[in-house]
Amino acid sequence: MNVLQEAVNLRDKNSLGIDASARYFTRARSTDDLRHAIAWADAQNLETLILGGGSNLVFAGDFSGLVVQVGITGRCWQEINSDSAVLELGAGEPWHDCVLYAAKAGYRGFENLALIPGTVGAAPVQNIGAYGTELSDTMVDLTALDRTTGKVIRLTNEQCRFSYRDSLFKHEPGRYIIIRVRFRLSRTRDLQLQYHDLKDYFSDQDTSQLTPSDVAQAVMAVRRRKLPDPDQLPNVGSFFKNPVIPGTEWRSLKERHPDLAGYPAEDSAKVAAAWLIDQCGWKGYRNDRVGVHNRQALVLVNHSDGSGQDVLNLASRIREDVQSRFGVRLEIEPGVVGGATTGL
Predict the structure, then answer these.
(1) Does residue 213 sit in the same domain as residue 92?
(2) What DSSP designation does 163 have?
């Protein structure tokens, strides 16, 4: 096992900047490191927490077990042909850097996911998505350590059971530790420019000549305009999922609230959580420690040494308001570690 540290402050290891402590901490730079760390924790009867970039976690308290930060790196092109290639990435690679790396090489599929914080290994758990693209659109398979058997296995896209901000890994938490992920990217697939922010950005340009790097730069510009930089204002990005409701409920809400923002399908609709929160007057709210970003109601921010419980208490108040006014239940996106999580 790599170096084992005791009583490690995790403030610089989570993008909300929450002051929490791990009883033990280690960084796994290889599969062997990972095996040894897990075996040690099991022998000590300690709970383990697998950590990527810490960009989708709320520490509601200290962690009394072993935190293992996955630092397995590596980028490798495989199965290259005239149109496509498979890119294999280590779980510890920074996601955004890999997006730019693939786009610069001329491959399409990642570019709409630029500037999403975190690591490659954490991305499938959430099935990260933005601007009409999800990770599951390009992922081929992944390699993971199955803690129930101790074996390193491969899971296909289908076996990961991806859906909107969901995956197998959320339904069987702690079982699989992702080591590597493979993606099939293309030189010729259509660029995804349907979202209005990207349409507006390219409104005066000939989109037929755009490169994946052009789209990645546009996504970065749009995100920077709307979202705070976690290094400047601690946050985890979107704190709430866009709720998916039945079509009948959507039509009823739309009749009562004609300006309701969402994306209707045949028998359901994805409602814009930011619109719901904004209508309840929360955008721009702040107390002494935490608040809601003044340009994006989905983003909760840690203004001044707020605790994880401060953030969760604010999230609960917002959820109650939205439920009371619209009858829609919001679900939070980040995972919660330690402390009381009832009702979230």
Answers:
(1) yes
(2) B
162 and 256 in a single domain? The answer is no
DSSP state string for 108-146: BSSGGGTT--SBTTTHHHHT-EETTEEGGGTEEEEEEEE
Gap between the Cα atoms of 57 and 34, Å rounded = 21
Burial label for 295, CB within 10 Å (0-12, 13-18, 19+), is exposed
Q: What pTM value is reported for the model?
A: 0.88
Cα gap 266→45, rounded to integer Å: 49
Q: What is the CATH number of the domain that holds 52?
A: 3.30.43.10
pLDDT per residue as tens digits for the range 34-91: 999 999 999 999 999 999 999 999 999 999 999 999 999 999 999 999 999 999 999 9
Same domain for 31 and 93, yes or no, is no
CA distances (Å), origin 182, targets 79, 146, 189: 11, 18, 18
| pLDDT tens per residue, range 191-224 | 999 988 999 999 989 899 999 999 999 999 999 9
3-state DSSP assignment of residue 171: helix
The CATH number of the domain where 149 resides is what?
A: 3.30.465.10
Mind telling me the catalytic residues? 165, 238, 333
